[in-house]
Structure formats: C-alpha cells, structure tokens
Structures
1.
Amino acid sequence: MPKIERQAARRIAERKVAEVATQAGIELALSGAKVIEFDGGWIFPWNSKAYQQTGEFSDALAGNSPFVVFKDGSVSQAPSSCLTPADILEWVRANTDTERSRAEDSG
C-alpha cells in the first residue's frame, strides 16, 4: 500500500478542518507549528484563526480534538478526552491495533 508524505497528510487535515469550519460557521485553521509526527502518521491540532492570531484564551475553542492522518491516507479524530500528545499517541496505538485486527478478521 502506498504511503503519503507529510504535505499530502496536511492537505487531508486541512480539508477536514474546512469541513468543520463550514459546519460551525467560524474560521478555523491547523496549528502548523504543533504537528506531531509518529511512526504511523501525523497528528494535526487545529483551533480558531482568531485564537491563532491573538493568543487570547477567549478566542480558543474547547473540545476540538486533533485530526490524525495515517501514512496510508486514512484519517481519524482523536477523542477530546486526549489532553496531551502522550494521550493522543496512546489512543492512536490502541485504535490502530484494533482497526488492523478488525481488517484482518474481515479480510
């Protein structure tokens, strides 16, 4: 299975953020400097454009969990209960193993 590069993963995450922005009626953007790379892909945090421009807590969103783009091009959204990068990576590892097991069982 072909693997995508970071820029392609970023475009996928940008599309997901754009979908949320359209639904919410607010300008949103990826938090570019905070992208986390791991063996299987990238974690893309995002927030309101206003927060990213002002840094004011009153402009920040609550519950906006990051998008996880895997090197195979699939994307998931981490649960909002994942508060730290370590929490997100733990969730990714647990769910990646579960998803692979399901795919192997059904294939």
2.
Amino acid sequence: MRLTVYTLFQVTRRTSINLDFDLVDEAKRVLGISETTETIHRSLQAVVRQARLQRLAERRFDLGESESVNREARTAKAPPVSLRSKASA
C-alpha cells in the first residue's frame, strides 16, 4: 500500500498597505498579540468568521413536521435550565 501525503501551502504575499496604527495597537491589546502581521491575520479571521456566522443565522432550516414534533416532545421532557451557577445555588 502506498501512502501519498499532500501538503497544502498557505498563499502569502508581501504587500504595502496604509494602516491606522492607533487602531492596530488597540487590536493588538484586545487580542493580546505583539506582532502586527499576526494581529492583521487574526482580525481578518474574526471578520470572516462573523460574516459566516451571520449568513448561517439568516438561513432557514426546514425541519419537516416529524422533526418539529420530535423537538417539541424533547423540549417538553427536558428539565428546567437554571442560569445560576451550581456554586451559588
């Protein structure tokens, strides 16, 4: 048996962009990162993730009648949920 391993390379290019460094410094503090490149990458990842979550939240899911009935049955049998932590209860 022959095993083939594929390596995916991340596409990276150098570019020159104008940045608001006060905003970059604030993002560094919020993210707890000291490097500008990593700050930009993490910020872009957060923006893309938020957009994907927003698109997912806007989708409509057709559960069908049987799934809707099953969900209602499970919900009716579920114990009540407390918002207080067990330590403070």
3.
Amino acid sequence: MIPKKKKEHEPLPMELCHNYNTCSRNICPLDPDKNSLPYVAGDEKCRATKPTRMKIAAQFPELLPGKGLTNRELSGQRTWANRSPKEKKKFLKSSAKSLKAINKNKSIGGKL
C-alpha cells in the first residue's frame, strides 16, 4: 500500500495577502495570533484594503473571528452596533449633510 502524500504546509491567512512578502507590520489583521502580539510604536499601517482582508478572512472563519478587520475597524463596528436605531438615523442624517456641504464646496473650487 502506498501512503498518501501529506500536505507540507497549509497557508496561514496572512500568507495569502499580496503584501505578505514585503510587509513589516507587527500586528497583522490576518494573523490568528494578533491579539497576543505586542504593540510596537510606529508600526506601519496595513496596506491591504479592507475588502481584500475580508475576502481572505472569509476562507478562515474559525481562525479569524474578527474577519480580518483592524482593531480600529472592529471598535467602530461595535460602537455602531451598540447605537440605538434613533441614534443611527440621526448620525446618518448629519453625515449626509456634511457630505453635501463638502461636495458643494468642492464644486465651487473650494479647498478643504
């Protein structure tokens, strides 16, 4: 009987990122152990886009319960989820007004 060939290495989520070989970020949103790693002052920002990280993370739901989101993104998601429907509506209305004002300013040649 011929033994089955073992897979040599299952890739980790962060290894599927197109920036993996050139990235020097200490705490990668795609690292299953990210919460046990120490913060390093001046750590570079993740260069992978949010949709890219989420797409990779979707392949590893058991390893990445944070879905490839940064700690800041997760915090924002929790904050939003904890708002009441009334608070969300008020926030969206105020944001729409702000965007309208910004776009109006841009259309008349204004700078931000």
4.
Amino acid sequence: MSRQKSVAELATATVGLMVVTLMVTIDMTIERMDAERLFSYRWHPHAVDASHDYSQEPTTLVEFTLEDVPEGTRLTIVESGFDRIPGERRATAFAREHEPTAIIDP
C-alpha cells in the first residue's frame, strides 16, 4: 500500500508520479520548490497513450508562482517548452493542456 508523501519529502525528491482524474500515471521531475513561493516540475504533456514510450521526448516546464498583491495572493501558472515537443503531438498536447479544468472565483 503506498502512502502520501509530505511536502518536505516532495521538496527533496527529484522524480515523482502524479495520477490524474483519467487514471493515467504521469512521470514528472520536480525542478524547484521554494516554500510558499514557487513550485515547478517537468513532464511529458498529454502523454496518455500507454503503448507509446515518451521517455525520449523533450519535456515541458510547469511553474506555479505565488506573489503577494494588495488584493491577496496571485497565482501564476506558466508552461513552457512546447516548441520542443514533436510536431505530430505538439498541437494536441498544447490544446489539451490548456483547456480549463477548473474556474476559481473568489
């Protein structure tokens, strides 16, 4: 039986797995974690075909940045590196990863 990892354990890890709603296991490498300010990881976007080996393809970098603003806290999410994704997958990966999955209304 696997257990949840604490934030401290994740901060020192270099590779992790993330399971999303579609029950797809996603390999990811944590790039950087600065408590209460920045979290970033690399992954293979829209790598959902279990019969395909994505390990030799380039990854994108996803960065979550928190910033204090007069109204509270601003969350900025940036994903870069789509220009390195193989052409036959690039458009689909970009479109799928940038569909809104949730709307947060304060």
